[in-house]
Design goal:
The chain is globular. β7 and β8 form a beta hairpin. With about 260 residues, the chain is of the alpha/beta class. About 40% of the residues lie in helices and about 20% in strands. The strands form 2 sheets. A 7-stranded parallel β-barrel has the order 1-2-3-4-5-6-9, surrounded by 6 helices. The protein has a two-stranded antiparallel ribbon with strand order 7-8. It has 8 helices and 10 strands. The two termini are about 20 Å apart. α5 packs across α6.
Length: about 260
């Protein structure tokens, strides 16, 4: 059986005169893009430009909704009610869909950002609100979430197709969750270590936690953070190594 994996990247996170990442350089190495919808990052001009760039590179487009927190880059927890989260996510999906229609690009998936993503990984009620928003907008959209998380469970319970996500540049705890960013070993800075972690996930279905324990982890898609200072190097080396190991890089196919 041919082995495939989706490589996704969080993009479109510049706004105004502030530039974040290098979207144009990283797009040739990935198969899907999670584009910021203007709340945690991005703006209408950046959204339009990023959708256009994704189309030119034959990369699947996903909405990347987050908390309305530009100053904190969406990485600060906010105590919203489930109804507020539902409306927050629905609003941002709609904004991204507008640019997709204008560029004749199908919206492929939804992946929450930052604190919203991490909170939904553990809080089923919050995860359910996100899944409800996706289903209300378009039940054929894929929902991306942390492998083994409450977000994946809520998506499946809602009848959505889900994609379980692993991370190339983040470390893991023994329960399969990501190491919090406020801890010093949360981010992987060495390209070889990131590549090794991804190959282990794809070929063995496991990840080695920070305490050395091997954790079972089924993944359909691997995330590279576009704001990582080594993002382009990571993307190039990962793409090269996957190809060398005869692992095809392809977007998750919608059923």
């Amino acid at each position: 059986m041919k082995r495939t994996i989706d490589l996704n990247c969080d993009l479109g996170e510049s706004f105004g005169s502030f530039v974040m990442g290098n979207d144009q350089s990283i797009l040739p190495y990935v198969s899907s893009a999670n584009i910021a919808c203007g709340f945690h990052a991005g703006d209408p001009h950046v959204m339009a430009r990023t959708v256009k760039l994704a189309k030119e590179n034959a990369v699947a487009v996903g909405a990347h909704p987050g908390f309305q927190d530009i100053q904190g880059f969406g990485r600060r927890s906010m105590p919203l009610t489930p109804d507020e989260v539902y409306e927050l996510v629905l609003y941002q999906i709609g904004a991204m869909e507008g640019f997709c229609r204008a560029h004749n690009v199908p919206l492929h998936h939804v992946k929450p950002h930052g604190a919203l993503y991490n909170m939904a990984a553990k809080d089923y009620t919050l995860a359910e609100a996100i899944a409800k928003a996706v289903k209300a907008f378009d039940s054929s959209l894929l929902l991306y979430g942390l492998a083994g998380s409450e977000l994946i469970r809520a998506g499946k319970d809602m009848g959505l197709q889900t994609a379980s996500e692993g991370f190339a540049d983040r470390t893991y705890q023994s329960d399969g969750t990501l190491t919090p960013r406020n801890q010093p070993n949360a981010v992987i800075h060495e390209a070889d270590a990131a590549v090794q972690q991804v190959i282990q996930m794809v070929e063995q279905g496991t990840v080695t936690a920070v305490n050395g324990e091997k954790v079972n982890l089924h993944v359909d898609t691997i995330c590279l953070h576009g704001d990582n200072e080594h993002a382009i190097l990571f993307a190039h080396k990962l793409h090269e190594t996957l190809c060398e190991n005869k692992i095809e890089i392809s977007k998750v196919q919608r059923l």
